[in-house]
Amino acid sequence: MGGGGSSTRRVTFEADENENITVVKGVRLSDSVIDRMKEPSSPSGRPHSQHRSASGAVNDEELKKRIAEELALERARRDSEAQKRRLFGKLLEQERISSNEHLTRAILRERAATEEERQKAQRFAKQLEEKDRELKKHDAYYKEQLARLEERSAQFYKVTTEQYQKAADEVSARFK
């Protein structure tokens, strides 16, 4: 019954409708073990393998048939599970590929949006620098105009003050 592998096997026990035979699923038995199991034990505890009746041969055939059926069912179940695993693996692979494509598209969209934002920021920075230069030009122009007006105002003040002084001197000279 022993195998060289250390893998875990699932074994199930079922009783047939007569409850005379226990069906063990998942265990491989040699023909000699099956024969020993089928024969009744003698009072001394040794099986009688030499004397078989016709009904024993029928039971052997039925038992072999049942074992073959069980093995076929077990193989079919394993094949079905393997097919399910393959299908599930394919579905997982398709989902992974789809997710990767979706992620790649999202990353490309984000990169494009980031590049667009960077270019927009550069344009705004250039516009801001241009406005700053223009404001500095206006500031210099207005300061120049203010200085010219102040100089003119000073000249007018000086002329006006001189004229006033002259007029005041004339008035004073006339009434003296």
From TrEMBL:
Chief place of localization: mitochondrion
Organism superkingdom: Eukaryota
InterPro entries, per the entry: MIC19/MIC25, MICOS_subunit_Mic19
Compartment(s) of residence: Mitochondrion inner membrane
Keywords: Disulfide bond, Lipoprotein, Membrane, Mitochondrion, Mitochondrion inner membrane, Myristate
Segments for region (Disordered): 27-61
GO biological process, one term: inner mitochondrial membrane organization
GO cellular component, one term: MICOS complex
Keyword Secreted attributed: no
Membrane topology: Lipid-anchor
Name recorded for this polypeptide: MICOS complex subunit MIC19
